[in-house]
Design a protein that fits this description.
Layout lengths: L2 H30 L2 H6 L2 H34 L6 H23 L5 H33 L2
Length: about 140
């Protein structure tokens, strides 16, 4: 396997790993940690949780931006990226931007406002994963004669 292909595999893996980490953290906080539990925790524990959440979000953002740019360039530079592919990709990018905006704006939120933000983040994250699967199918379909 050529080195360029190995690099693309690594980049795809990092992109997927960032998605799993961020969406997993969102779902964990939304489902496993009820909002009233957070209010019962001491300030130091809540701060550690906030810092961990911020670290996952920031690392995911860096990973998504760098790997996503490379993957987008790779796919769009190939013949298999038709109009449908570009349209779905544009929607995926738009939803990703919305997801990052919600995460950024709600980073200090608490209580019901935090729960609403987490629900939107989970919905957007799951939709983005669906669009990624659709993109893979659209691209693979163009490779088969």
């Amino acid at each position: 396997m050529p080195a360029a292909d190995l690099l693309l595999v690594l980049i795809r893996w990092l992109h997927g790993l960032a998605a799993v980490a961020w969406i997993g953290a969102i779902l964990y906080e939304l489902i496993v940690i009820p909002g009233d539990l957070l209010t019962k925790l001491d300030v130091a524990t809540r701060e550690r949780m906030r810092l961990a959440r911020a670290e996952v979000t920031q690392a995911s953002l860096v990973a998504f931006l760098t790997t996503g740019a490379v993957l987008t360039f790779d796919r769009l530079s190939r013949a298999g990226a038709d109009g449908a592919y570009v349209g779905v990709l544009a929607l995926k990018v738009a939803l990703s931007v919305a997801m990052f905006q919600i995460a950024f704006r709600s980073r200090a939120a608490g209580g019901a406002e935090r729960t609403v933000a987490l629900r939107w983040l989970a919905i957007l994250g799951v939709l983005i994963l669906l669009l990624a699967a659709l993109l893979k199918t659209l691209f693979e379909r163009t490779l088969v004669p």
